[in-house]
Amino acid sequence: MAMNKESNVYTVIFATVMVVVVGGILAFLSLSLKDKQEANGRVKKKIEILSALLSADEMSKIDRTNAEAKYDEFIKEGVLLTSTGILVKEGIEGKEAAFGVNIKGEYKDKNIAIKDRQYPMFIAQKDGKTLYIIPVIGKGLWGPIWGNLCISEDMRTISGASFGHQGETPGLGAEISQGFFVDRWTKSNEVISDEAGDFSSFEIVKDGSGTKPNKIDGITGGTITSKGVEEMVNRCLVPYTVYFKTKKS
User: Fold this and answer.
1) d(CA 2, CA 13)
2) Which string of DSSP letters, residue by residue, matches 69-116?
3) pLDDT tens digits, the chain, 249 residues: what are they?
4) pTM to 2 decimals?
């Protein structure tokens, strides 16, 4: 007996079947593409790490086809620290452990106490020098912001930086990812610690005093995002300065 296609029963059955079919297709596609998505995520992360180490010209020659090879060319070791700067892992083992840490996930997960967060660092060799790349994560006006800071051999001076965001306002907060803002962190030999090795905090300013030590000119019209960068850097760098101080002594 044919079902009345105008009936409510037919509508409910049809809708249920379509939900099951479409849901099944989406689930299949998600599982099928999972490995590829994870691989793309790893490559993207390696490019972000390298962006704090290499110049804009050097980065222009790196894409998804050669990013992993370039990462292994420069990143030789890694370090994993606790929130108090205590060493957990280092060397080649530390490199793998550091890369495996999802700082964005840990920052977002409210079930992970601040004291239980992990702090990864990547050790690079470039032009005969040892450099340290520190990832940072924070919150802007509309969503997460992040970045990487490259520290010189002296374990104090910022020699490179890169910043990213998920949804900051174009022309305003989104400018943190632009070269002119990144350059403000490196042009004046900014340091993350004082002569004694203790952490030196940064301040994002809007009064033009960015030429003073540890003061960085913010983004015009992007005050909240700029202050988000300030909080992010000041919070994330502390464990590393503890590690560097211990390493020096």
Assistant:
1) 14
2) HHHHHHEEEEEEE-TT--EEEEHHHHHHHHHT--HHHHHH-TTS-GGG
3) 555 666 776 677 777 888 888 777 777 766 765 677 788 999 999 999 999 999 999 999 999 999 999 999 999 999 999 999 999 999 999 999 999 999 999 999 999 999 999 999 999 999 999 999 999 999 999 999 999 999 999 999 999 999 999 999 999 999 999 999 999 999 888 999 999 999 999 999 987 777 788 999 999 999 999 999 999 999 999 999 999 999 998
4) 0.85
Residue type, 226: S
Q: For the chain, give the number of residues.
A: 249
In three-state secondary structure terms, 62 is coil
3-state secondary structure of 199: strand
d(CA 223, CA 228): 8
Provide the residue ranges of all domains of the chain, joining segments of one domain with +.
Answer: 75-248
Contacts of 99 (CB under 8 A, 6+ apart): 42, 45, 78, 120, 122
- Residue 103, judged by CB atoms within 10 A of its CB (0-12, 13-18, 19+), counts as middle
